[in-house]
Write a structure and sequence with these properties.
mainly alpha; binds protoporphyrin IX containing FE; Globin-like
Length: 136
């Protein structure tokens, strides 16, 4: 799967807004994720502040380099292997992506529309597919 130039542009533009609201984005994400899968809360540490920071930092790297897939391959491989150790299963990615998009819809409410949603869904799916491929 690849993203169109237009989708990459939309993602980069909206990312700036997310980063300036990283704490709120993280809180919204975990609120949605744990509402959808309360049983998976045990996988995460109690202090989610640091976790939020790490997640957004990783997504930033992946997002800003997504047009150069070969540059992030190694990064994604290592991230995937660490996730296997955290007890993460490939089946969890879909709901993780759902919570992520719901959180973005909240934070980016003023500019949110169907094309932006689709762009983020595709970007998440690309990263998820690459990670899942390393986990099997
Ligand atoms: C695009 C997909 C994902 C990205 C970019 C991502 C990113 C990260 C990052 C950067 C960390 C910090 C630690 C590290 O670098 O190893 C982390 C930790 C973690 N992630 Fe993910 N993650 C993704 C998907 C998932 C999914 C689907 C789950 C399933 C529930 C998950 C659960 C966890 C858990 C349990 C930890 C460890 C918490 C801890 O003990 O510190 N992640 N993730």
């Amino acid at each position: 799967m690849t993203l169109t130039q237009e989708e990459q542009k939309m993602i980069r533009n909206s990312w700036g807004k997310i980063i300036t609201h990283s704490q709120e984005t993280g809180e919204a994400f975990y609120r949605h994720f744990f509402a959808l899968r309360p049983d998976l809360e045990v996988l995460f540490p109690t202090d989610l502040k640091l976790q939020t920071h790490k997640l957004l930092a990783a997504v930033t790297i992946l997002v800003t380099k997504m047009d150069k897939a070969e540059h992030i391959r190694e990064e994604v491989q290592k991230l995937a292997h660490r996730h296997t150790k955290y007890g993460v299963e490939p089946a969890y990615f879909a709901v993780f992506g759902e919570a992520f998009v719901l959180a973005l819809a909240e934070i980016l409410a003023s500019i949110w529309n169907e094309p932006l949603k689709k762009a983020w869904q595709s970007a998440f799916q690309m990263i998820a597919e690459a990670m899942i491929a390393e986990m099997s």
